[in-house]
Design brief:
The complex is a heterodimer of chains A (about 900) and B (about 200). Chain A contains 38 helices and 17 strands. In chain A, the strands form three sheets. In chain A, strands 1, 2, 3, 4, 6 and 8 form a six-stranded antiparallel sheet that branches. In chain A, strands 12, 13, 14, 15, 16 and 17 form a six-stranded antiparallel sheet that branches. Classes of the chains: A alpha+beta (about 900), B alpha+beta (about 200).
């Protein structure tokens, strides 16, 4: 434990004496600087003064411009002294003072003299100082010396020049790039660190030249005798080459053998770097992964915390994408739960939660319960989130997991931690029907003693929506009504709303709710009173058991479908008059402006569908946008909108991407266009679509953009009709047509006359997956059983030879565009058969469940059995058609 | 669907290594005392632009780590999206910080180099008083380990050798320096304390 060093008790009292810098004052030290000007220099005294200056700077004191200049000029006098120690301190203080360019000139000649000195220590340090303070013009003067220094036989000098080169490359790339030959020579150096620095600089110089980096790696991976640091660099560059060649190479990965051989290196840092590089390869196969996992597993039982931490962190990451590959380490992981280092323990637990199977859940929970009491909130949140994922993966285990959550909910904790628990319980209630009643009661217990207003109101709102739908809604009333007595106004108002919801939904409870609500009419807070009065009036029936009318339910439960910003503006503009405020007059259009502003500044917007294709509520946003266009209103309800597909390369004149909107009998293409040429104004922009390879579609209308000024995105739409209920597919070729007008850059005014022009865009395909929405189910077996086999359709297919099972599985998942359930998209290492469960909603809102069984034989031929269940026979057949034609 | 949305916070911390990080980068090296006060610190990154930001980092890092036992082996933790390695001896706390995607073992080598070279230079008499009295050596030592984030040297013998060369015969080439000489120099340095 951190004990201050106290030898004797009385020592402690004079602890202040420990510091030679006690009572140091900047003013006094600045006075002392005068000794630098003495004709008879005392090197030791001067060193001490510099140390004091450095101490002040290091403690966060700062010198004014004048003070710094004064100190700097005095320091330059010290170059007269031949004392080595003093010279070192002079170098240090010059670097700290970071002199301005006119000051630099004064020391340049002294430093250049040192650079050519016979003393290696002078040379190395003078190079570093000079390169630190130099500017471009000076650099050209000393370039010759630096090139020599790079290949100097003294490793310290060479390293000093190379490291300086790495930093200078940022400011003066054209100069440093001329040093390639010398740096290349230094890469062959026998001095370990010189090679390391040379390799880093060479890669930086050539980083934009893929081929050169690839050659560099090829030549060096064959070599030997390297420092571990240089070897780590080589691993990084090799994996860069692998990453960049990912699209062009087929078959064996280049340099994989090199990475694997590094797993047997004697230095741990190299083994770890290689293991991590392998786990991060895109599309890594299980065969490639295994040796890396084995290497990391050995580290797990190391006596050094750093090794255990590094290994468990890397494995935790692997567990996200290849949970099965990590299961071999589970025993080692479990022993890490009791690790002294809580970061290691947390990483181990979250890894186990990802890789664990259903049977180990109970045991794991027991271990975690002991563990939770002695870790910090930040770690607890991580664990809670991992448990939530686990529960969704194994819904049958909800009881023990829900128990765990409710237990920790009762313990001490900060807001973020409690919020994470509450969020998790809410998600579990939503996704696991069986967990609902117990979960709601846990939340009720929690608000009885909850210090966070935000959480209380959120829970009350949730209770109001879910509680009335349970078998015995009355048992929640007590908890809710208690809030009206015991809480602050915000929570009271929320509780009143929740009571009203129960009253509206459960007719039998209405009389009691009325009694309770009437007691709130005299609340001290006006919001609570207003809500109560409103609900008493709208619930109707005057306390009798009657059915609630639809309008009231909409008032209580309906979401406000008007953007709040628009409502606020309209209300501000409303002038009190005879005519009441009409909420229908408020525009429902989402203004894209505020969204566009959110985009990271400085980053040039490319595909301008981005503001719309933003965060989760994209479908809502699209729906609102489409509903503003009257022509589309007859199309019915929007089924699905695709992610934006880019139709242009990055950095072209016009950036266009397209979103496919699928309706029952129509498909609408929304082209998001951006004009990236400041000197042009585009008018009457539309997209001409050629349907020669899309027979089933017929264009019904095209909606051009009137005007498309520079850098302001606009949308043009083209709508097609297609036969109802058929998954029409096809390829569409697109041409952008517009009138272009020159814009005067000085005035920003466009010329009168424009020229008609066209711009070829890339082709777009509508595929079967466009008609499928990814919608998961939490418990596939239940869903499968309850769907029944009325419209079951089973058939077998041969998929031909494949690389491995995982590839075949992901191909079929992509083809169908369905949501994999219960983690079955992950194929275990080297397995010869696999079952994959998929769920989705097909066009026409038909739920579809798919069970895929794969098998692979010795010659890598893959066979698949496809079983489909859905609510509609035609849809079951369609799924089979998609697979057989895909 | 839900599962995807449920990205653990920790997972976010461990994902995605920036391609730009072509070589290991050290963000700072700190030497604090047993109350978390600065003995000597060196920052190589813009992550902490002001002195107050630096002090705040040191304060919370110290609070987070002070209770751990980092006396026999170096310890490690995630802190503010950084990896921090640390080791304590007597009333001195040594820290090395790197980015969250840095190879932990490379940072460990830097910490080891820092720690061991200071031990050599202070003749194993490693405590705050000794460190302050030889603060020039500590500054020089920091200067020899990392240059603006780039690792210069991790071998403690070489680092201590370069620092101690100060008062050696200027004509002696560095490479011929033995650790014995380095120690002798360091010892000699000790005899003349800073403020007599």
């Amino acid at each position: 434990m951190a004990q201050p060093l106290v030898k004797k008790d009385d020592d402690h009292d004079d602890e202040a004496d420990y510091s030679p810098f006690l009572g140091i004052e900047k003013g006094a030290v600045l006075q002392e600087v005068r000794v630098f000007n003495d004709p008879q220099l005392d090197p030791r005294r001067c060193s001490q003064v510099i140390t004091k200056l450095l101490y002040l700077l290091n403690q966060g004191d700062s010198f004014s411009k004048n003070e710094a200049t004064e100190v700097f000029f005095s320091v330059t006098k010290l170059f007269q002294s031949k004392d080595l120690g003093l010279r070192r301190m002079v170098y240090l203080i010059i670097k700290e003072l970071s002199p301005s360019s006119d000051e630099v000139i004064i020391v340049t000649s002294s430093l250049m003299k040192d650079m050519n000195s016979k003393t290696d220590m002078y040379r190395a340090n003078a190079i570093r100082v000079l390169c630190r303070i130099t500017d471009g013009t000076l650099l050209t003067q000393i370039e010759r010396y630096l090139k020599q220094a790079i290949v100097d036989k003294n490793p310290v000098v060479a390293s000093a020049a190379l490291v300086s080169g790495i930093h200078l490359l940022q400011t003066n790339p054209e100069i440093v790039k001329r040093w390639s030959n010398e740096v290349q020579e230094a890469v062959q150096s026998r001095a370990a660190l010189v090679q390391f620095h040379a390799l880093a600089l060479l890669q930086q110089i050539r980083q934009n030249d893929r081929l050169a980096v690839s050659k560099l790696v090829t030549s060096l991976t064959k070599g030997t005798a390297r420092s571990p640091l240089a070897q780590c660099l080589l691993i990084r560059y090799a994996s860069q080459v692998i990453r960049e060649s990912a699209n062009t190479q087929t078959g064996d990965r280049p340099f994989y053998d090199f990475l694997e051989s590094c797993l047997r290196h004697k230095a741990e840092m190299v083994v770890f770097e290689a293991a991590r590089a392998i786990t991060e390869l895109s599309g890594v196969t299980n065969r490639e992964l295994t040796p890396a996992i084995t290497a990391l597993q050995l580290f797990l039982s190391s006596s050094k915390p750093v090794l255990r931490f590094a290994a468990v962190r890397a494995l935790n990451k692997v567990a996200m994408t290849h949970p099965m590959a990590v299961t071999n380490c589970n025993i080692d992981m479990e022993s890490l739960i009791s690790d002294q280092n809580r970061s290691i323990a947390t990483l181990a637990i979250t890894t186990l939660l990802k890789t664990g199977n259903e049977s180990s859940v109970d045991r794991l929970m027991k271990q975690i319960t002991n563990f939770m009491s002695d870790i910090a909130d930040e770690f607890k949140i991580v664990v809670v989130e991992a448990i939530r994922s686990l529960c969704l993966k194994f819904p049958l285990k909800y009881r023990s997991l829900m128990n765990f959550l409710s237990n920790i909910l009762r313990e001490e904790g900060g807001f973020d931690y409690k919020k994470a628990i509450v969020d998790s319980i809410v998600i579990l209630i939503r996704d696991i029907p069986e967990a609902k009643e117990s979960g709601l009661l846990q939340l009720c217990e929690f608000i009885e003693d909850c210090e966070f207003t935000y959480l209380s109101t959120q829970i009350l709102h949730f209770l109001g929506n879910e509680g009335p739908k349970t078998t015995d809604p009355s048992k929640y009333i007590r908890y809710i009504y208690n809030r009206v007595h015991l809480e602050n106004a915000t929570v009271r108002a929320a509780a009143v709303s929740t009571l009203a919801k129960f009253g509206a939904m459960v007719d039998a409870l209405k009389p009691q709710i009325f009694v309770l609500l009437r007691r709130c009419v005299l609340d001290s807070d006006d919001e609570v009173r207003d809500r109560t009065t409103l609900y008493l009036n709208t619930l109707g029936g005057d306390g009798e058991v009657v059915e609630t009318d639809k309008e009231t339910k909409t008032l209580l439960f309906g979401a406000l479908d008007i953007p709040l910003v628009n409502l606020e503006t309209s209300l501000k503009n409303y002038e009190p008059s005879e005519e009441p405020f009409d909420i229908d007059s408020v525009s429902k259009e989402v203004k894209s402006q505020p969204l566009a502003e959110k985009k990271a500044p400085g980053k040039k917007p490319t595909g301008l569908g981005a503001p719309l294709a933003g965060p989760p509520s994209t479908v809502d946003a699209y729906e609102r946008l489409l509903s503003t266009i009257p022509e589309f209103l007859d199309f019915g309800k929007l089924f699905k909108s695709s992610a934006p597909v880019e139709l242009t390369e990055a950095e072209t004149e016009y950036a266009v991407n397209v979103v496919k909107h699928i309706f029952d009998r129509h498909v609408v293409f929304q082209y998001n266009c951006t004009n990236t040429i400041p000197e042009q104004l585009l008018e009457n922009v539309s997209v001409i679509v050629d349907l020669s390879e899309a027979d089933d579609f017929a264009e019904v209308l095209s909606k051009p953009v009137r005007s498309l000024p520079y850098d302001t995105p606009g949308q043009t739409f083209v709508a097609f009709e297609k036969p109802e209920g058929i998954t029409a597919v096809g390829k569409f070729s697109n041409t952008l047509r517009f009138i272009v007008k020159e814009v005067d850059p000085t005035t920003g005014e466009a010329e009168e006359d424009g020229v008609e022009d066209e711009y070829q865009l890339e082709d777009l395909e509508v595929v079967a997956a466009d008609y499928m929405m990814k919608v998961g189910v939490s418990n596939f077996r239940n869903a499968w059983e309850s769907m029944g086999d009325d419209f079951e359709h089973v058939d077998e297919y041969g998929l031909g030879p494949r690389e491995n099972l995982a590839e075949a599985v992901s191909a079929v998942i992509n083809l169908l565009g369905m949501q994999p359930c219960e983690g079955t998209e992950v194929v275990a290492t080297n397995s010869r058969s696999h079952t994959c469960l998929l769920s989705g909603v097909f066009l026409g809102n038909v739920r579809v469940l798919v069970r895929l069984q794969f098998g692979i034989d010795g010659s890598r031929d893959v066979a698949m059995k496809l079983a489909v269940r859905s609510e509609d026979e035609a849809v079951s057949d369609t799924i089979h058609e998609i697979v057989s034609s895909g | 669907m839900e599962l995807e949305a449920l990205n653990d916070r920790f997972d976010l911390l461990v994902t995605k290594r920036s391609v730009e990080d072509s070589f290991p980068v050290v963000k700072n090296i700190l030497l604090l005392d047993s109350e978390g006060k600065r003995v000597a610190v060196k920052y190589y990154s813009d992550d902490w632009p002001t002195n107050n930001a630096k002090l705040a980092f040191e304060k919370s890092l110290f609070a987070k780590t002070m209770k751990s036992n980092a006396r026999t082996e170096a310890e490690i933790t995630m802190f503010d999206s950084n990896i921090v390695l640390y080791k304590f001896v007597q009333d001195l706390h040594f820290y090395v910080t790197g980015g969250e995607d840095e190879n932990e073992l490379i940072l460990a080598a830097v910490l080891q180099g820092f720690f061991d070279s200071i031990s050599l230079l202070l003749r194993s008499n490693v405590d705050k008083r000794e460190a302050l009295e030889n603060l020039d050596l500590i500054f020089l030592c920091l200067d020899e380990i990392v240059e603006r984030g780039m690792i210069l040297e991790t071998d403690a013998n070489v680092i201590a050798g370069k620092v101690a060369v100060n008062s050696m015969d200027p004509s002696a080439p560095l490479s011929e320096q033995t650790i014995g000489q380095a120690l002798a120099t360091a010892r000699e340095h000790l005899t003349r304390t800073l403020f007599q």
